[in-house]
Design goal:
- The protein is an alpha/beta fold.
- It contains 13 helices and 9 strands.
- The chain has one domain: Alpha-Beta Barrel (TIM Barrel).
- It is globular.
- It binds zinc ion.
Length: about 325
């Protein structure tokens, strides 16, 4: 895994949308897209004696020689049932998750979700919350789930314990300041985690949110060969097993955000119920007492939207071109 190139891609995307909102979060906050400062009072929240001695990884390439011992997801997609959630446990439940926002593309996605009574999960970056607090407030008010996704989006296995704590806690504080809620789930950027990262997150009160279906839509930002049809093709294939799933998309990138309605339509048409991940897993979304609910039926007058945007002929063509479940 080439973590440096992924980081550069993310930085480029952040800079591209760096001046979206005038109404930034009040108060003094760390710089955008930079490792936030370490605060001693937060460091004390984690007992370092309890942390597994997983080696800090190089940013250039993961050392997978201890992948089994420390359950390094980036090496072998290793998961620990005690801390990690990667799927909805019940058949015909689907958790959509959108990462790296809130961004300029998020409001249009929210418009669609609201018009179709669809509830999903957003894994937000602290820097973006600082930049777009009003969008985060709208996400909350419209009944979606919010998950911590770090302040500056680093590969967590490559940074110190103190830095990981700062990445999580600054994002937690930004979310608390924007909407008054404290998420119970965090998602490691790029899924990069090992047992040290898990232990830190767990000691800070978090479960780790992963996924079992990846659209790779983030590649659309710099890969001219990326085809949006891959998103439809994959979802069309994924729904055929009728099992519960959690999918990964990104509302930071235009292709991921603007094609999400088609993915939602495919999942709905297959008879799935779309739920925030904490609803499909039967767990709490926040430390505060807030009850989220599953998606409801699409309002009758919104069926027109589906007919207008749903081109069955195109879909058949795409299915015929379908080759592999994941275009890695
Ligand atoms: Zn991310």
């Amino acid at each position: 895994m080439h973590l440096t190139s992924l980081s550069a891609l993310f930085t480029t995307a952040l800079l591209a949308f760096a001046s979206l909102s005038e109404a930034v979060l009040p108060g003094t906050w760390p710089p955008m897209d930079q490792p936030p400062p370490i605060k001693p009072e937060w460091v004390k929240l984690v007992d370092k004696k309890k942390l597994p001695k997983a080696p800090i990884q190089s940013a250039q390439a993961a050392d997978c020689s201890k992948a089994v011992e420390f359950c390094i997801w980036s090496c072998n997609t290793c998961l620990r049932n005690a801390s990690d959630v990667s799927t909805c446990p019940n058949d015909k439940d689907w958790g959509f998750s959108f990462d790296d926002g809130p961004s300029t593309f998020t409001p249009a996605l929210l418009d669609f979700l609201k018009s179709t009574n669809t509830k999903v999960t957003f894994a937000v970056v602290g820097s973006r919350v600082f930049q777009n607090p009003e969008i985060l407030q709208r996400i909350k008010e419209e009944g979606h789930e919010i998950v911590v996704h770090t302040w500056s989006h680093p590969a967590l296995t490559t940074i110190s314990t103190e830095q990981i704590i700062a990445e999580i806690k600054w994002t937690e504080l930004a979310i608390q300041t924007a909407i008054g809620l404290t998420p119970k789930y965090m998602r490691p950027p790029r899924g990069d985690m090992d047992d040290r990262v898990r232990s830190i997150a767990t000691q800070l009160g978090y479960k780790i949110l992963m996924w079992d279906r990846d659209t790779f839509d983030w590649k659309s930002a710099d890969d001219p060969n990326y085809q949006p049809s891959w998103i439809y093709d994959n979802f069309t294939q994924w729904v055929t097993d009728s099992k519960g799933h959690i999918s990964l998309e990104h509302d930071l990138y235009e292709i991921g955000a603007t094609n999400a309605p088609y993915a939602v339509s495919i999942v709905r048409k297959a008879g799935y119920t779309i739920k925030p991940v904490s609803v499909c897993t039967g767990t709490a979304a926040y430390k505060e007492n807030v009850q989220l609910v599953a998606s409801g039926p699409v309002p009758a007058d919104e069926q027109i939207w589906g007919m207008a945007c749903w081109d069955e002929t195109l879909l058949v063509t795409r299915q015929m071109n379908y080759q592999t479940p994941n275009h890695v």
